[in-house]
């Protein structure tokens, strides 16, 4: 610690702190432009100059390290004059077009001039003008170079935080301008973080352009619905109409960053696809009706299936309260444990449960990625959880974290990794087993013998140098964090993958490391959905639904209802119930399995075979097109609640508009449905439900809504680690030499919400197929060609994107382009999916029959077409 | 040697490929005369560096030209020493005889006229650089002689093929 | 008469060839250093010589070398600053064109002293002839074993690479040069860390000017005391002065440090052109504040010039005679800095732009009352507040011109024209 005196106040600060940081702690305001907390100082704007005793010149406080006994002054006449002079110079060429500038009213330059600027300028010469018209750098970014003050925050943000290296600075001196390659940002991430950090109106959001003045906006702090990172964002609405999103430097795991989905993908709330009125199926077609009519219809249909099985599927994008109430509804009103929260995979709960309760680290990401090693397993964190990726990059570049990657898909983060290990598609389980084996071999006597008995003493090695270095890094580090892509659950080998994860965590623990583990979810509230017990095997709090009578009884008492003791079916098994004619009512909330279940044919047949299909959703999904009853629900932003993110942080989701058209809140609809069965759900308001969750769910105990401040609050780890069971390595995978299709999120889309954002669709309208340079070469196809991807089940056509970092044999198609119907290529129980890729010829038409089955939109939407 | 080979050879001098952007741009400019977008992309691809980095350098440094220049680039120093020794008059003369303003190229593509900052040859001020060569102690007479020589040289070179024109010898 | 040291070979035919250089005793200093001295001893010799950097700032070279950490697993680099962009300066070009081996040997001895195995010579791209000569010299020296693996049979390995600049004065600023070498826009870096600790590729790096490095072999051969005996003790050695502008005999002169400016201009360089009188002299490149006629008795060394309110800088001596308009000279100087400002920091980028606009107006006879006060205020806002010394140099230059020739500026404004036209 060193001592510093600023303006007469003395303070002890950590060695290495800057004068600016010390002043901040004393509450002394020093103006800055180029300074950005998360980046190394640039010290170019010279706003923050201060006097330091003993030094002749003023020094930039943002870049001056405190030395012991330093005496600093920030409020002398010389400093005031200097600040005023800097602002005077900045204004000399600034266009001062504040009345027509989007930034007017929230512009740092305006504010700074008010606070520190000259009252009048002597400058009378003509101003520099770069361009008379603003430059459209990309679909979402528009630039007015004349207003730029060269703080370089945008460029540094783009390169150092986002890692996109899309923005740059051209020319020099007075001609310096920020722009993209050849004046375009057409191929950048479109994350808009450059816009966010621009202190003036130089970089602007095109979609928000000229739409509102900041003081016209009602701003609401809430959570992004687009992935499990759970970024805080602020929605600006004008007269109830969605206007823009921005992020705040002070709040959330993300601080001022967001990704393209968060910043530009919230306009889906206004999608044309919104369901306006309830609909019921009459004479084969869905027709709009009133809520009463829908109620009557549903009451009749429900009565008819009362004695048959029921099942429920809810989206992991819904708030905790809705999910909690949904499973309560299913368990107490529909009297079934047939409940699931994903149609994309079946969770091997016997393996997942212990991982979640024994190893899952409910702690800030910032903290866990500060560990000596971070191993990222599977997926592509750059595209799936972009903001998490920013933080990982920062950890690797500035916090000495050894970043280790093990996945089939390459990602941009590989460049910052100490080791990036490529495994064959679907090869994560054996890959992890190799790491476990390698670690055990290296650890030798440090591990107990019984561990070796199952793991085996010799590494199931790829024999690659990379795997050795990865193991060495894990062995050397004193602490390690595993971040695991949830996409790994897609594989029929998910169980083996989870087993090997378990082995790895156990071995690391036995070696005395501090170990942390978190999943990287692509659904905003996947953690919450599991915590809330939207699983056949688990009650809220991940308590066993059937094996633990005491737990079930206790919860039942709290609910004033009995919880069925029969084991439930997951979604996969529910489809089978449908198939064999045993499913009475299948209740789907906010989920579109017809698009996402990895076998479109099967799910289509099964949904058709259920006696009664109820779909409650904000959007007219493909699945809704097959429903008997469609209940229009509030969308994101139209009801309050909480999300629990990857970190186990519960955060407040706020309402910024009323439900569109005749849509009703999800909770209200559950009450409506329960009433049709002459029951009530208690309690029924969001606040009360949250209170009940905080009472009955152990991990949420003690949380209060008010306690969820701007940064939310962490849920608690469930129970102590389980006694270490080890699992044998999976059999060595058979070598498949053809192309293997994997899927997942792309940067611009991660689910049916993003696909309904008009802005995201203009940014990334083309679905694509990604493959390696060598495979493309062999197939004689090149970047931009239309290609056909064909599996045993079906085929699709899309534009080829050649990626030179892709390994041979890997084909990637993003999951969320409805037009592709990717799931029609997939076969249940098979993933990755073997495919062939061929060049599409213009004349070539996809043969009817082999292609996707007739569109359910055609079936159902006739009805919706009428836009009720 | 192909451009790629030359660039790769230059890149071998540095532990980091990014360092080789400047030498690569000089090589590419020798090859292409100037540096349009596709050339910048090619340089980025050869070195495996970000395109924007290449673009940044191509515009920061004055010796790189993103737009074409004439066969002979007349770069007249107008910094203090040369100014004191009469470069202003020389500029006026050049503008007159070439019929263009500084910063532009004659319609026949022969000459581009620029003023430049100090060439580091003030002992022979006023100085002008043409291609690789410095011409010092200039006055109107010497300038005219030089222009005549350059014109003659261009006459021998195959018409409009700039790349084929040998740089004026020492 | 002062016996030339650095320019000894300059007018010798084929002075740029190895044979000529060897015939004059070339590469003996390298052999001597490798044979008789440890690297630390060479650093010590240079320290004792009081050699101060010839690039402009006059920082003691031995002390700079001493900052390089002795241990550490990172490679060390030597960078030679041959960017020579300071208007009025041409000494480094002449060394490289006519006696490049002197630099090559200087590089080798210096690299040995600091423990570097790689040197980059950053030569401004316009210097095509110098670059070719240097390339040739490096090839010759490598052939003869003065460079390469195991220099002269020792275990010292040394490689020199040339990096061509591409036209940006700021690359002469040492940290901007490092950025440029790393393939970035040449903008100065924050210090600390200083290059000696974390410079090129974050490795310990020494940056020295061509002339500085050229002095080193002579110090090794003749000893630090010989060097120190030339000129003032605190600022000693033979010095290259570049004289240009309105004088009879512009050219490169080698004379002891500290000789009076008047003697340099009037005796060696022949004085003003016929019929003219000297009005003022810029003693060290345009970054150095101008000295009016009556200040010419100042000694040409770092300390004396600093005491006189100017600086030795790059020793680019520009003579301005009484036929010349000072407003025009000042405008041209500020235009230069404005053009060459890298654009990083506010005061330099914006302030110089503003200053240029006002100066051009005054020069064109469109000045207005208050303009000079505006310029004073700008100088104050810029000086001391810029990120690097470029902006400072500009502000100092303008301030000096305004101070010494205020009446000329005022006349432009009052008469609404240039009195010299
Ligand atoms: C704007 C600016 C331009 C400079 N230009 C040069 C130059 O062209 N050549 C040079 O040797 N030093 C130049 N310098 C000085 C260098 O930064 C540095 O001090 C010098 O290269 C160190 O070498 P020395 O210690 O041998 O002088 C410049 C400094 C500044 C601030
Ligand atoms: S003073 Fe500032 S803008 Fe000027 S050259 Fe230095 S860093 Fe760049
Ligand atoms: S904030 Fe310190 S110089 Fe800009």
From TrEMBL, chain A:
Residues 1-78 form the 2Fe-2S ferredoxin-type domain. Coiled coil: none annotated. GO terms for biological process: ATP synthesis coupled electron transport. It is an enzyme of class 7 (translocase). It catalyses: a quinone + NADH + 5 H(+)(in) = a quinol + NAD(+) + 4 H(+)(out). The keyword Transmembrane helix does not apply. InterPro entries: 2Fe-2S_ferredoxin-like_sf, 2Fe-2S_ferredoxin-type, 4Fe4S_Fe-S-bd, 4Fe4S_Fe_S_CS, Asp_de-COase-like_dom_sf, MoPterin_dinucl-bd_dom, Mopterin_OxRdtase, Mopterin_OxRdtase_4Fe-4S_dom. Residues 217-273 form the 4Fe-4S Mo/W bis-MGD-type domain. CDD domains: fer2, MopB_NDH-1_NuoG2-N7. It comes from the Bacteria. NDH-1 shuttles electrons from NADH, via FMN and iron-sulfur (Fe-S) centers, to quinones in the respiratory chain. The immediate electron acceptor for the enzyme in this species is believed to be ubiquinone. Couples the redox reaction to proton translocation (for every two electrons transferred, four hydrogen ions are translocated across the cytoplasmic membrane), and thus conserves the redox energy in a proton gradient. NDH-1 shuttles electrons from NADH, via FMN and iron-sulfur (Fe-S) centers, to quinones in the respiratory chain. Couples the redox reaction to proton translocation (for every two electrons transferred, four hydrogen ions are translocated across the cytoplasmic membrane), and thus conserves the redox energy in a proton gradient. This is NADH-quinone oxidoreductase. It comes from Sinorhizobium glycinis.
TrEMBL record, chain B:
Gene3D superfamilies: Glutaredoxin, NADH-quinone oxidoreductase subunit E. It comes from the Bacteria. SUPFAM superfamilies: Thioredoxin-like (SSF52833). Binds 1 [2Fe-2S] cluster. Its cofactor is [2Fe-2S] cluster. It catalyses: a quinone + NADH + 5 H(+)(in) = a quinol + NAD(+) + 4 H(+)(out). InterPro entries: NuoE-like (IPR002023), NuoE_dom (IPR042128), NuoE_N (IPR041921), Thioredoxin-like_sf (IPR036249). [2Fe-2S] cluster binds at residues 77, 82, 118, 122. Keywords: 2Fe-2S, Iron, Iron-sulfur, Metal-binding. One of its GO terms (molecular function) is metal ion binding. The keyword Iron-sulfur applies. Belongs to the complex I 24 kDa subunit family. This is NADH-quinone oxidoreductase subunit E.
UniProtKB/TrEMBL annotation, chain C:
Keywords: 4Fe-4S, Flavoprotein, FMN, Iron, Iron-sulfur, Metal-binding, NAD, Quinone, Translocase. It comes from the Bacteria. It catalyses: a quinone + NADH + 5 H(+)(in) = a quinol + NAD(+) + 4 H(+)(out). Signal peptide: none annotated. Its EC number is 7.1.1.-. Pfam families: Complex1_51K, NADH_4Fe-4S, SLBB_2. GO terms for molecular function: 4 iron, 4 sulfur cluster binding; FMN binding; metal ion binding; NAD binding; NADH dehydrogenase (ubiquinone) activity; quinone binding. It is an enzyme of class 7 (translocase). Residues 327-372 form the NADH-ubiquinone oxidoreductase 51kDa subunit iron-sulphur binding domain. The keyword Kinase does not apply. NCBIfam families: nuoF_fam (TIGR01959), PRK13596.1 (NF010120). NDH-1 shuttles electrons from NADH, via FMN and iron-sulfur (Fe-S) centers, to quinones in the respiratory chain. The immediate electron acceptor for the enzyme in this species is believed to be ubiquinone. Couples the redox reaction to proton translocation (for every two electrons transferred, four hydrogen ions are translocated across the cytoplasmic membrane), and thus conserves the redox energy in a proton gradient. Belongs to the complex I 51 kDa subunit family. This is NADH-quinone oxidoreductase subunit F.
